[in-house]
Known about the structure:
The structure is a homodimer. In chain A, a hairpin with a 3-residue loop joins strand 2 (about 85-90) and strand 3 (about 95). Helix content of chain A is about 40%, strand content about 15%. Chain A is globular and about 55 Å long. The two termini of chain A are about 35 Å apart. By secondary structure, the first copy, chain A, is of the alpha+beta class. At the A-B interface, strand 4, strand 7, helix 9 and helix 10 of A face strand 4, strand 7, helix 9 and helix 10 of B.
Amino acid sequence: xxxQEQRIETSDRDGDKLMVPARLVEAQLRAxxxxxxxxxxxxxxxxxxMLATDLRGVDSHGIGLLPLYDELRQAGKLTMAPQxxxxxxxxxxxxLDAGGGLGHYPGDRxxxxxxxxxxxSGLAAVAVRNSNHFxxxxxxxxLAAEAGFIGLATSNVxxxxxxxxxxxxxxxxxxxxxxxxxxxxxPPFCLDIATSTVAIGKLRLAWLEGRDLPEGWAVDEQGxxxxxxxxxxxxxxxxxxxxxxxxxxxKGYGLAAMVEVLSAMLSGASFAVLRDPDADRLNVGHFFLxxxxxxxxxxxxxxxxxxxxxxxxxxxxxxxxxxxxxxxGDPEITEERERQVMGxxxxxxxxxxxxxxxxxxxxxxxxxxxxx
Amino acid sequence: xxxQEQRIETSDRDGDKLMVPARLVEAQLRAxxxxxxxxxxxxxxxxxxMLATDLRGVDSHGIGLLPLYDELRQAGKLTMAPQxxxxxxxxxxxxLDAGGGLGHYPGDRxxxxxxxxxxxSGLAAVAVRNSNHFxxxxxxxxLAAEAGFIGLATSNVxxxxxxxxxxxxxxxxxxxxxxxxxxxxxPPFCLDIATSTVAIGKLRLAWLEGRDLPEGWAVDEQGxxxxxxxxxxxxxxxxxxxxxxxxxxxKGYGLAAMVEVLSAMLSGASFAVLRDPDADRLNVGHFFLxxxxxxxxxxxxxxxxxxxxxxxxxxxxxxxxxxxxxxxGDPEITEERERQVMGxxxxxxxxxxxxxxxxxxxxxxxxxxxxx
Lengths: 372, 372
């Protein structure tokens, strides 16, 4: 387990959690990012995205990442006041340089640029280079859906963890892909997935709970399946979606490579395994696409058929009546409704780390402000 | 097992196969399609695509489908001389109506239109409605890569076979997705996958060989895993990529839904489970995207980094030195080299069916032409 792994403890289920109101999570994010020297506009956008991620229940990608970001910052791998620039642009494409900072602000700007171009042209794609972690890909795809467009967002990751079918070396990060589309009556469809079978966070959770891993999540140094959670966490060798040859893991491996091509080769970011570990910048890349259904058919017809699909999926017969069939995006919507009222769960371990993060940069620690 | 299943027997490994030279496969395809009344240009393009599919080793999607197409034709579900029309068009998008015919010709035309628009604009997307089976998605994605562009091709399928996570009813077809990108020294990267764990053809093969299925390919009517190949073939209930909840089958299910949105909701084709079984037209939909790397960065740099990725993947350490790590597209390239010389394997069972197909429409049966 790397130091950064030890510090991201939001997902432990130790039963000892704070329930932090959204506005305190927001204030804490703003205070820390600002104290790190992030300019005001970038701070606001990064705060908004990280808070939305926590509210949607994606604990592995929200405030729980501040300790990791702090570590990168201290190691000189994160520019806190980056220049985000448009390097190339046409009516339907653009390339952005993120200036070596966190990926949330350039990601947001890139997808909004794609949306703006899509409003004029019906279709647009924007790539980003020289970036860093951008949180949950679904947030960006949803921006497009909220504008009435289909949205696609992908990112590569600086550390390789996914082992190709037949292989024993990690060649790709967990390379996420998100796809969102607007509906009529229903909230947008939103698929937001890593292209590995599971993300690192699930190994950590099993380890914290003293459970063996299900076979098929991780492999050992020989490339053979391992169920030892501690060993798997130390090695960080994940299977691609599909998990093994017989269950078509070559498909998950291929999807991870597809995300790498769109995010890194297209933008000029670093291919995970070729990144110079001593370089100042991690040079992560992202890719965003926006597509207007109204360029193809009547918007209302498209949205009505999205509703029809969503309704049919929800109404389709489940194996266990207590566990209905879900539509991609449903779990996050349920979580968000609950957390807007109940607050964001933060483990004691993470709270301690966040207090340290705040103290280190001279920001106030706000999560346990009484009667805030 | 449906009648169409029984008739697609190219993939049986009964050891009793003809090796048919490519030019005879080509002549047979042309003779049958033409006898069915397909216009000359459409016949040439459909023949070329189906032959290329057979040469690439995708036996389930080449000449082995003629019996199924014949069945659809006889059932009045396939227009043999369709009007393929552009219904809507902008500089970067288009919608085509395929006129109720086979999908190969409109698929080819749609991707070529996307490529043409991409030449001017750097990016283009074309959707197709009112189509039918288009063979292997990879063929269309490769058209873009051969033009120097990134290509994406998807299709929905008229019969639902993929059961969502938690569910017990099939809600999507095997909804294929192909993604291709050009390299420099290397042939293009080409991922061509169904979003189910395996395609129906793999169940049939296990059944023919008297093997049980690996657990995780198919489910029974209660939604529980089944290893009985005969029962699974009869039921046609496939798992999404990932195969079960614990191994993240919700990701494969979500990808199948993504393909449905792009192929059916966007174009106005029929959502698999809502298709009227008595309708004259199956109204299958496709989606094609072309993206020019040179809109984002220097083309040579992009291609050099594609080469670097491909080379690194091939050189990465395998579990078994006799089974090196492959790059998506490699197996098809190897197969094509071999089949150009050795011919296309056609089982005796399929040969008999193809002879019947030819006789039924008055075309010559050519596969066993001596010393042709």
